[in-house]
Design goal:
The chain is mainly α. It is 45% helix and 9% strand. The structure holds glutamic acid.
Length: 485
């Protein structure tokens, strides 16, 4: 029995400083596949490109994955039997393996200078030839190689790709994909700085970490024949490959920063819930074939099947994400919404508000049916946190008549007689005041709303009264009478 029968998958990001939504989709599909099949989900940091090193990127990545609820079983900060899970800590392993390839003549030293490589490329481009290394150094004798190494000549190690070979990539999403080895460049495997390239490190680690399924973005498909050749060169069993469809802008171009946010961190700071982002991203390239679209992470695990992933690119539609946020906000536990709201309030201009949790919970209850984001509570109903600074002119024009101050005074008097009023009490008192004034309730309702909130719309009027409380409501009525002329 092959060791690959035990399902082990990995998410292998390069730490660039943020998590791309495409990266989240890759991480998520790996996670779902592992959880669905009782497998292991590994996080491996591919940081061998030192030029792209970003301070704090790994920590940030882990925080973001955690925020999304994607817990890994092995990886940095957690450990596991196949560590280190950070490639820059595995250099000795790569060096040892590259020696094996050199001995097998599957890889060779290349001492060509960057100038020669550039010249070669230019001359190939001139005659419209495919640009690739011409294997010059493959023909060095053992003595020549040893001499150059002794003299510390800068060098790289390249994969020796045989010519005229068909390389087959078996992909569970795309089927058999065939590549012509003549179109593949003798890939650099070990760089001049002693670091491996992505290709070498990726294959060695996938093998040593016993990865059974390589699930990653389609942009890696062109690299896969090189990986297949590496597995074959080492004589290793290959994992199963699954290349996920591209993410597209609505105009069908490749998803790019220019047309919107691509970093998970940006969506987080804009107030999207992790549940909705994860739910939305899960459906970019896969669907469970049922009408329902709103799922929790656990439900996604239950339904996920890698065989059902599409080949065609998936369009990233922000309106749909917003709609998902509306739905998930509806389902979210009161206490969690409270936590988010309090956090947002601390960062807002209402940071020294003195509202108790119970009051905030009432605000959440009143506002939740009408918002997509927790931050909308603050943006759409600032009047819960401070008295209105101004009054909507349109509403004044429509609802504020000459006698309105009198009606409101009557109402305020009515309210001042109430003792710890309920919503019902506020409503009854309003009816009573209207009767006293000899007008319909409407004459009081709209102007009262304006006085309390400064605007013409929002949650139920009696909810607002109840949340603000009797003293504050009466105060706002008199202020409005004073200020609206
Ligand atoms: N380090 C690659 C990346 O940044 C990993 C690709 C793979 O999964 O093989 O996406």
């Amino acid at each position: 029995m092959s060791y690959l029968n035990q399902i082990r998958v990995r998410f292998a990001p390069s730490p660039t400083g943020y998590l791309h939504v495409g990266g989240l989709r890759t991480a998520l599909y790996n996670y779902l596949f592992a959880r669905k099949n009782g497998g292991v989900f590994v996080l491996r940091i591919e940081d061998t490109d030192r030029a792209r090193y970003v301070e704090g990127a790994v920590e940030n990545l882990i925080v973001t994955l955690k925020w999304c609820g994607l817990d890994y079983d092995e990886g940095p900060q957690l450990g596991g039997n196949y560590g280190s899970y950070i490639q820059s800590e595995r250099l000795e392993i790569y060096k040892k393996h590259i020696q094996i390839l050199i001995e097998l003549k599957k890889a060779y030293y290349c001492f060509c200078t960057p100038e020669r490589i550039t010249e070669l490329r230019d001359s190939q481009q001139k005659v419209n030839q495919q640009t690739k290394y011409d294997k010059l150094c493959l023909h060095l004798t053992q003595n020549e190689i040893e001499e150059k190494l002794k003299n510390n000549l800068p060098h790289v190690v390249r994969l020796n790709i045989e010519i005229d070979k068909k390389v087959i990539v078996e992909d569970i999403i795309r089927g058999k994909v065939e590549f012509d080895s003549n179109l593949l460049d003798d890939q650099v495997l070990l760089k001049g700085d002693g670091y491996p390239t992505y290709h070498l490190a990726n294959v060695i680690d996938d093998h040593l970490m016993k990865i059974s399924h390589v699930i990653r973005g389609e942009e890696w498909l062109p690299s896969t024949p090189k990986h297949v050749l590496l597995y074959d060169a080492f004589g290793w069993e290959k994992p199963v490959f699954a290349h996920l469809p591209l993410l597209l802008n609505p105009d069908k171009s490749k998803l790019s920063k220019r047309q919107g946010d691509v970093a998970v961190e940006d969506y987080r700071s804009k107030g999207y819930l992790s549940e909705s982002l994860v739910n939305f991203v899960a459906l970019l390239g896969w669907n469970p074939g049922i009408e329902q679209e709103i799922f929790s992470l656990d439900e996604l695990v239950e339904l996920f099947s890698i065989d059902a992933v599409n080949k065609a690119g998936a369009v990233f539609n922000i309106e749909k994400l917003n709609a998902f946020n509306f739905e998930h906000l509806r389902k979210k536990d009161d206490r969690e919404v409270l936590r988010i709201l309090k956090d947002l309030l601390t960062k807002s201009k209402y940071s020294n508000h003195s509202l108790a949790d119970d009051t905030l919970l009432l605000i959440i209850e009143a506002m939740r049916p009408r918002i997509s984001f927790v931050k909308d509570i603050i943006e759409n109903s600032p009047y819960f946190f401070e008295p209105p600074e101004s009054y909507d002119q349109e509403v004044i024009k429509k609802r504020w008549e000459e006698d309105t101050p009198n009606y409101l005074r009557t109402l305020a008097e009515e309210y001042s007689r109430l003792n710890t009023p309920s919503k019902d009490d506020y409503e009854k008192a309003l009816h009573k005041a209207a009767e006293t004034c000899g007008v319909g309730n409407g004459k009081l309702i709209h102007s009262l709303r304006l006085a309390l909130s400064g605007v013409g719309g929002g949650p139920g009027l009696y909810d607002i009264l109840f949340i603000l409380g009797k003293e504050e409501s009466i105060k706002r009525i008199y202020t409005a009478i004073e200020r609206i002329k």
